[in-house]
What does this fold into?
Amino acid sequence: MHDRLNDASPAAVTPVTSRHAVGSDPVAVMPPLRSAVIGALLITAGPLSMGVLTPALPLLAQELAIAPSHVTLLISLYLGAFAICQLLAGAVADCIGRRRTALVFAAIYVVGSLTGMAAESLWLLIVARLLQGVGVSSGLVVSRAMVRDQYSGDVASSVFSVTNTFNAVLPLIAPFAAALLLQVAPWRSVFAMMTALGIVMMIVSL
It folds into this structure.
């Protein structure tokens, strides 16, 4: 699969211009492996942001004196914002382009992560998680559109395969990585990690 991505023929990576939405950015065909890595990052940001916070919930609940029943709002509201805004992300991408959409949503995610890192109350944490849910909602739509705009056939299938593999594996690792981090750092470090993830998302979206 790796060889197929690296050795893709020019014909295989010719963009399908008829599928390119009006108002989108001009298609500059990237190496398939690069597209696979970018797509994997955008797609996995959503489940990663849910998985890494889970081990920190008891710690933040204890420090901020939040009832366990209220802490679960940080998960459910995040998922709600993610699901609702995912329905709108496709239209936004068609209007302002894939790259701009990814950049704007990643910036929203960074703002949410910074808000969570500085939060001193449940309400600020809820705002942070809502912003994070909005921020990661474009990942699946943008990454798939990016692949469809650039590739076809076996190369497109290989890129999708790589991104799906990352999406299946990384969320399983995320809670364990966060638990290890929490052994040596406070719960706010999890939001710092998500801030770093958001900054990387912004960089790859440029």
